[in-house]
Amino acid sequence: MPEAKNLVAPLSPALEAFLARTDVETPYVVVDVDLVEQRYHQLVAELPAAGVFYAVKANPALPLLQRLNDIGSSFDVASPAEIDRCLEVGAAPSQISYGNTIKKRRDIAYAASCGVRRFTIDAVPELEKVADVVADAEVCVRLRHDCGGADWPLSRKFGCEAPEVAQLMVLAAQAGMRTGVSFHVGSQQRDLTAWDTTLEVVAGIVERAHEGGAALHFLNLGGGFPGAYVDAVPSIPTYGRAVRAALQKWFPQGVQELMIEPGRYLAADAGVLRTEVVLVSRRSPDDLERWVYLDCGRFHGLAETMDEAIRYRLRTPHDGTATGPVALAGPTCDSADVLYEKNAYHLPLALAEGDHVDILSAGAYTTTYSSVGFNGFAPLAEYCVSAR
Ligand SMILES: Cc1ncc(COP(=O)(O)O)c(C=O)c1O
After folding, report:
1. pLDDT tens across 317-330, in order?
2. Where are the beta strands (DSSP E) in the chain?
3. Do residues 355 and 266 touch, judged by C-beta distance below 8 A?
4. 80 in contact with ligand 1, CB cutoff 6 A
5. Other C-beta atoms lying within 10 Å of the C-beta of residue 306
6. Which of 86, 114, 296, 333 is catalytic?
7. Domain 34-267, CATH
8. Dihedral, CA of residue 166, residue 171, residue 173 and residue 175, to nearest 10
9. Handedness of CA 371, 377, 379, 383 (dihedral sign)
10. Ligand 1 centroid distance, CA of 263 (Å)
11. Residue 242 and residue 322: Cα distance in Å, rounded?
12. Which end of the chain has less neighbouring CB within 10 Å, N or C?
């Protein structure tokens, strides 16, 4: 397997203890909630001026949300169901930001009935929906970003161009709303200049909006902070320095309210996806490449292997022994259920049916991607552990 060049911490004792159990059927994800808390504090230390709105979509497990709520996090949600989960762990509606730019009118109304007031938009019709339904809404206008440098880009579906952002802010201000700007530089963003170049654009938007009578009440820097996959990433203090410097450069006077919406950074490295090898085979006897079929695939949570975008680190019981190239696939009767074929993964030659393959840093964007029963396989199970 290609090795991660960045420093990767060993798994926590709580994770190892769970993985040592023999009574838990695979596949499953196990998440150490203490690690999520650690990550939260690390990010707050780097960006102390920013309110953390955890992107619930990354992993909505209740123990994880509970811990984040207990330590003061706020939440970015995409749907009424995510609102319900946040309220269930005791979050106040004022701690919830409805960050999805695509909302049914009745979902906006539901959010408003729960007390949620902050909504992200990127188009006039969406602004009109919010204005129609919520008397005292605040709107965050999302700037489009090309997400260059990100392993999991979010560019095609969201955001509008800078002049439209300014125009939407002005329209919202005219409707009596408090206004802000958001952007997302793309998930697993490995280019640290992304925040600088985007904040330059935002500074221009704010000037233009100001001329139209709209103020920047809040600035939402989105997510993009990384998990530890195969490709090396800078350390989080390096990210922190880059973002702080960009803010200082383009908003030297500060901003009224600063937000970040981390998902991956808080949850990914806190989780492991344990799988079992179902079959190791070769297409022909002299084929060097083996096909390793796991009991978890693209349809059971590993959706981010699409186009081999997110390259997970793997752990096997035979690590340290001789390896050879493999293609890795899931268990379903669907030829799209292939995790890695092009990325030169190497796994031990000793790997055999029944062995566990641990997919590391799999605490984010896995469980909720799992289908409800494709080919009759159960959804991916999840367990949360803590040393407390
Ligand atoms: C609106 C919004 N905010 C935050 C996030 C979290 O991003 P990340 O996991 O890169 O931190 C996402 C991810 O899709 C998102 O759509």
Report:
1. 999 999 999 999 99
2. 28-32, 50-55, 74-77, 96-98, 118-121, 138-142, 150-152, 178-182, 187-189, 218-220, 258-260, 271-282, 290-294, 314-315, 323-329, 338-348, 356-360, 381-385
3. no
4. no
5. 13
6. 333
7. 3.20.20.10
8. -170
9. negative
10. 6
11. 40
12. C
According to DSSP, the residues that pair with 294 across neighbouring strands are 277
Alpha-carbon separation of residue 255 from 60, 130, 140, 247 (angstroms): 30, 24, 14, 9
The arithmetic mean of pLDDT across residues 133-143, rounded, is 96
CB atoms near residue 91 (< 10 Å): 22
Average model confidence (pLDDT) for the chain? 96
Nearest-angstrom CA–CA distance, 31 and 15 = 7
pLDDT for 155: 80
Q: Known catalytic residue: 333?
A: yes
> What's the CATH class of domain 269-385?
mainly beta
264 lines ligand 1 (CB under 6 A): yes
Say if residue 128's pLDDT is above 50.
yes
> How is residue 152 written in tokens?
């999991």
Ligand 1: residue of 187, 195, 243 to mutate (most ligand atoms within 8 A of CB) is 187
For 284, counting Cβ atoms within 10 Å of its Cβ (0-12 exposed, 13-18 middle, 19+ buried), the class is exposed
Residues in the chain, overall count:
388
Question: Domain map of the chain by residue range?
Answer: 34-267, 269-385
